[in-house]
Specification:
heterodimer, B: about 290 residues, 2 domains, 11 helices
Chain lengths: ~270, ~290
């Protein structure tokens, strides 16, 4: 028994190491200031990288702002569109339901490269290429499957009983949604929000193709650093990337006071 | 006669479906039309399958297809097997729930590009691991450290994918396994089934639909992914998405339909993998319900 317990600890510790170690490397790199090619650790630490990142030239702050703006707008609209769609799929039976369920999943199946390269020509014709609106419009379908699935499963579990009660009490459509269903959707909105935000926040290809380099987001800024360029900058940029999406998730986690059912819909 | 409820459902679905139809499937359909050679900008308006024949006859085609399959299949298999065992392991440990939540939620916040960068910093020839081996005297210079990137074995790319995918599979399987475990696993234990028997005869078969679904999503993702193989893949062969992109940006506009044909083939493979999942999940569900 003790041996299996020890083995268990080894497994957990190694999982943690694999998860955490890479971040330590990023942190060390971001504070390094001169690192000989055969030395194990940097010979000098300093804030050069960080100072440059927060200066105007690095465009880090403006890209971060643009990324947050795009992802928030996409998440907001994604929410507004996927709540009614989830309701339809969770509560009603209607002709063509299977087909629609399949269509809704399409953005998680068909790769974005095919869609992006195909749609670029139309976006150029209608003046959407190189614009913020264009980038938001191509991000939007990518986040919908997550929201729709989460809200469909909530509505399915919820049934119509609560809204029927409210109907008997003469609540109109908006009141029924606002005071009866919405409180039940709240945990789902938070899970869906985290997912949608992250999908949009980490999107590279469509932003690059449709934004044409004019719409600068964090992934676009980070991309060339992966295989070349200043590693100090690259590490700082990555840490800011992770930190900003973690902070958002933490804010959301604080709002959720977790119970088992709620986290169940987190990723599906 | 369409019922009132059906009308209501269609009404609720219209906004979301329009966005998906116009801005996603619309793009896919445009790609398909262009793959048939429709390209008015250079005066081509006849529809033809000649670009499909051209792609299928290229010597790169089979190389690229198998390279992409190799990367996607290997990373999916490793991620699925380790994710499944990890899920079962986490189910049986006494560690705190919040710790488990941290294990799978943390990697979600880390995008593929950052994972790529971290793995490069560790495994490249100037990376931490090679420096460690050098210090320990196990290698004589950094050039003798094995190459993980820009190589045909694509080990670096595969490691990047599995770092990101194991937590995904673990979580999807864990939530389902937890339900099965509390309901049936404990019943089997009471009937004196050994932990191995419980796992292989009860938990594993019942979790199969979610395991297959997670691995189908992971496979479709890694087969169609662009960034990581574009940055860190071998010069030859290219993965299918990278090959498509290089044709797409080529100065020679007649290479565009070629790019679209490759896109269609990639999409077909992804769709088939999801379809296989659907069929096998259905089979399992029928067998066990």
């Amino acid at each position: 028994m003790d041996r299996s317990k020890a083995l268990g600890h080894i497994v957990l510790v190694s999982i943690l190491l694999v998860l955490i170690l890479p971040f330590l490397v990023l942190i060390i790199w971001s504070f390094s200031q001169g690192w000989a090619s055969n030395a194990l650790l940097p010979n000098e630490f300093g804030l050069r990288g960080w100072r440059y990142l927060f200066s105007q030239q690095s465009r880090m702050l403006s890209s971060l702002g643009m990324s947050i703006l795009i992802s928030l707008v996409v998440t907001g609209f994604g929410m507004i569109l996927s709540i009614p769609a989830g309701k339809a799929l969770g509560l009603y039976i209607f002709p063509g339901k299977r087909l629609i369920e399949l269509l809704v999943l399409a953005p998680t199946i068909i790769p974005t490269i095919a869609v992006g390269m195909g749609i670029q020509i139309a976006f150029i014709r209608y003046g959407l290429a190189d614009t913020l609106l264009g980038v938001i419009l191509v991000h939007l379908p990518l986040v919908l499957p997550y929201g729709i699935r989460i809200f469909a499963s909530i509505y399915k579990a919820l049934g119509t009983k609560w809204e029927d009660q409210a109907k008997i009490l003469k609540a109109n459509g908006w009141q029924r949604f606002w005071f009866t269903s919405l409180p039940f959707l709240y945990p789902g909105m938070i899970s869906a929000g985290v997912l949608m935000f992250n999908v949009s926040f980490s999107q590279y290809f469509l932003t690059y193709l449709i934004g044409g380099g004019k719409i600068m987001t964090l992934p676009i800024l980070l991309f060339p650093f992966v295989n070349s360029g200043d590693r100090v900058m690259a590490s700082g940029l990555s840490l800011i990337f992770i930190l900003s999406s973690l902070i958002l998730m933490l804010i959301i986690e604080r709002v959720i006071t977790d119970s088992e059912e709620k986290t169940n819909v987190y990723y599906l | 006669m369409v019922s009132r409820d059906s009308l209501k459902a269609y009404l609720y679905l219209t906004p979301a479906l329009s966005v998906i139809l116009i801005f996603f499937l619309g793009g896919f359909i445009l790609a398909f039309i262009q793959s048939l050679g429709y390209f008015p900008a250079i005066g081509q308006e006849d529809l033809t399958f000649k670009y499909y024949r051209e792609v299928l006859n290229k010597p790169e085609f089979f190389k690229s297809l198998s390279y992409t399959f190799y990367i996607a299949l290997l990373s999916t298999t490793i991620a699925t097997v380790s994710g499944t065992f990890l899920a079962y392991y986490l189910l049986r440990t006494s560690v705190k729930k919040s710790f488990i939540a941290f294990l799978y939620k943390f990697p979600i916040a880390v995008p593929h590009l950052v994972v790529a960068l971290m793995i490069v910093f560790i495994l490249s020839q100037g990376g931490i691991l090679s420096r460690l081996l050098l210090k320990g005297g196990l290698i004589s210079d950094t050039a003798s450290f094995p190459a993980f990137f820009y190589t045909q074995n694509a080990l670096g790319i595969i490691l990047i994918y599995i770092w990101k995918e194991i937590p995904f599979v673990t979580f999807m399987v864990y939530t389902v396994m937890r339900n099965i475990h509390t309901k049936l696993g404990e019943a089997a234990q009471n009937l004196k089934a050994s932990p191995g028997q419980v796992f292989f005869h009860v938990i594993l078969p019942l979790s199969m639909p979610s395991i297959i679904s997670a691995s189908a999503l992971v496979f479709a993702y890694s087969f169609g992914a662009f960034e990581v193989p574009y940055l860190l893949g071998a010069t030859y062969p290219k993965t299918m998405p990278v090959w498509a992109y290089l044709n797409f940006i080529s100065a020679d506009l007649s290479a565009r339909p070629i790019a679209m044909v490759i896109n269609m083939i990639v999409s077909l493979v992804c769709a088939v993998s999801i379809f296989i999942y659907y069929l096998s999940a259905k089979k399992y569900l029928r067998k066990w319900s």
